[in-house]
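Q: Predict the bound structure with adenosine-5'-diphosphate.
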Amino acid sequence: IIELKEQSQQLSTITQMSAGIAHEIKNPLTAIKGFLQIGAANPDLRDNYQEIILDEVNRIESIVQDFMMLSKPKSSIQLEEVGPDQAIAYVLRLLEGEAEEKGVKLSSSFDLEGTFLYTEPKRLKQILLNLVKNAIEAVDQGGSVHIAADYSGDNLTVSVSDNGPGLSEDELNRIGEPFFTTKEKGTGLGVMVTKKMVEDLNGKIYFNSKIGHGTLVTVVFTKEENSKK
Ligand code: ADP
Ligand code: MG
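A: Predicted complex:
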């Protein structure tokens, strides 16, 4: 017989995390329920709420997807030969609409033709997507976001820079913490999941930022690192 001892440390992390997840999911659920109830009572109002309900469902879906990504074991990664230029082009294509809508100038400079990396395209794209999305969200109308990539000495370096408000030292210390967000509609999961994906791909991620001076995020992947596997 053994007595199960208190695991206060471990438990408090789990408790905090559960509370956070529950809270993040409960908010959109409450909104969905409310709009469905109004719609049920006033059928002619229903159409007005469709879009909000869909937005809230999408929000829950993306929170759940982020958590699923966190629990995926590193061993599930299938490395393949990937042209990093294709991943960057994909992300630019995907976000150019959003940037234009916001009046943000999205530019890039890279010459990666003929270079490749052993990596997982899905995670690589998601990493870049999260970083560029944050940059677009950080800058005001008229702001700019630049993606630069360089391959040298077996290192692929991709950087995303913006001329947004930047981060205070305090914020910089908290970035990547679960649920740390300064946005009204933020989840504070993006950087945490990005960090995990970068680690999964044996890369490194650096945030360089100063209030009033924009933000530069750099990710570095080494060709050698992954081809050893
Ligand atoms: P979310 O985008 O949902 O807020 P993230 O984990 O993606 O969550 O980002 C966490 C926080 O980090 C953001 O709310 C913002 O305060 C800060 N942040 C991330 N990227 C940038 C950036 N490029 N410029 C300024 N702040 C940023
Ligand atoms: Mg984000």
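A: The pocket of magnesium ion (ligand 2) is lined by residues 130, 133-134, 190 (CB under 6 Å).
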